[in-house]
Amino acid sequence: MMNKFFWLAILFFFFSCKEDVKNNYNNGSLTLAVDESFYDISDALSYRYMQVYPEAKIKIVKVKEREGLKGLLDQKYSTIVMSRPMHQDEIKAYEHKTNMKFQPAFFAADALVFVVPKDSPIQSISEEEIKNQLLDGSRNLILDGANTSNTDYLADKLKLNTSEMQFSVLKSNEEIIEDISKFSHHVGVIGLNTISRPYGEKAQELRSQIKILPINIKGKLIYPDRQNLKDQSYPFTRILYFLTNEGNFGIANGFIRYACTNIGQKIVDKNGLQPYYLFKREVQIK
Question: Are 134 and 141 a contacting pair, CB within 8 Å?
Fold first, then answer.
């Protein structure tokens, strides 16, 4: 009888250790839920992480931001990327369902940008004009659908209820860019990350089709460039952050830590977004 219990204990210990290894930072598996607007930076970070840790597996699932948050709370996804500040009721729900303190891991400054065809006579746009066009029934603004990160961020920024916002819809950020020439008097609303890669062939092709409108603030034109993202003077700057329900240091927290290190922030920089953390450059003089 003692031998039986001994071997049962050994088997229990073996499978417990095996389960821990499965969720190790360097050889676990992770499903990362992200909105289509910031898929590119999520893909770049996960690709490099898997190069460093070949046995780690990260699968990226494109979902609308609100659906991603719901999936995180329902344990469908262990990690998501968010772009808007969470409301107090959402934070309470997160802490209640995960039994964890709300600790967003900020890693990049992205932006909502307003685009028109190259030959459009429109030269700039103001926050007041954006708000009016969402409420006047003209549907001049083109977004990528309801409940997406772009739509929810715009609603939060302008203090509007999403149910009262009226806009035209195309399926994705890329489709908005590719089809904006068909709607010469409309303004497309996209995530900067869709076109931010400086040397990416697809990003270059998309940028060649559009004109980015500066935001007119009392006659001053503010573009979504690096400096204006860094100091957040561009009014539609949004800070991307990771949120996880993983309570231990497994692959989710390992990946998040990697994205916030010097190496991860360099990846953010190379993808045309503003790194959240600024690391000092070390210069060696010989």
Answer: yes
pLDDT of residue 285: 45
Task: State the pLDDT at residue 17.
Answer: 41
Cβ–Cβ < 8 Å for 151, 164? no
Query: What are the Cα distances from residue 10, in Å, to 2, 3, 4, 7, 23?
Result: 12, 11, 10, 5, 21
Question: Cα–Cα distance between 15 and 10 in angstroms, integer?
Answer: 9
Q: Domains in the chain, start-ordered, CATH in brackets? A: 17-108+239-275 (3.40.190.10), 110-237 (3.40.190.10)
Pick from 215, 196, 216: nearest CA to 206: 196
Separation in Å, CA 8 to CA 17, 20, 22: 14, 18, 21
Note the pLDDT tens digit of each residue in 79-110: 999 999 999 999 999 999 999 999 999 999 99
Q: Model's pTM, two decimal places? A: 0.88
